[in-house]
Design goal:
Structural class: alpha+beta
Helix content: 40-55%
Keywords: Glycoprotein, Membrane, Transmembrane, Transmembrane helix
Strand content: 15-25%
Number of strands: 4
Largest sheet: 4 strands, antiparallel
Number of helices: 4
Protein name: MARVEL domain-containing protein
Radius of gyration: 26 Å
Subcellular location: Membrane
Membrane topology: Multi-pass membrane protein
Main location: membrane
Length: 176
């Protein structure tokens, strides 16, 4: 451990980029974990060909972990459709299957944030001592190399998951 922290490392590209990565990880994690969505639509139905059009509004709320939607339908004085026996306000819970994708993004964000914190602590507190202890040859398992490899792997996994999720949304296919 250095006798005093080397804050100057934060002015160099590897320290500055780690600071940017930390801010991005925090915002990405907070965006997914704190997300609440809302939608509204109107249902229109003809009871019989000669009758007037009736409509009812529906509203839905969904939130992290994206495993269900609460659907609220408003009451209508007229029957909405011919097969309805009672017109009343209802609250239904619809199951959706996006929980694993949301949890994956949160997991990736938390792991990346923890690694960035470890990397910043290493660069600020231990970097100079490690440079003095090694020769000019960079070893395969030196921390900057491990940092680089971890960043490449985590970036690849995140891009691959975004690509697979896009395919799933567009083509209704599963990507493993």
């Amino acid at each position: 451990m250095n006798k005093k922290p080397n804050i100057e490392i934060l002015k160099e590209p590897k320290g500055f980029i780690k600071g940017i990565e930390l801010v991005i990880c925090i915002f990405a994690f907070a965006t997914v974990a704190g997300f609440v969505g809302h939608f509204e639509f109107t249902i229109t139905c003809h009871v019989t060909p000669a009758s007037s059009v009736t409509s009812r509004s529906a509203k839905g709320d969904f939130f992290y972990p994206f495993d269900s939607i609460k659907l609220y339908t408003a009451a209508s004085e007229k029957n909405l459709c011919a097969n309805e026996t009672m017109a009343s306000a209802t609250v239904d819970t619809l199951s959706i299957n996006y929980k694993s994708e949301a949890e994956y993004f949160v997991f990736t964000g938390v792991v990346a944030m923890l690694f960035v914190i470890v990397a910043l602590v290493y660069y600020v507190l231990f970097e100079d001592r490690a440079k003095d202890a090694t020769s000019t040859d960079v070893g395969l398992f030196s921390f900057p190399v491990v940092d680089f490899i971890f960043t490449i792997i985590s970036g690849h996994l995140l891009v691959h998951k975004c690509h697979c999720m896009g395919i799933r949304l567009v083509w209704s296919e599963r990507c493993y």
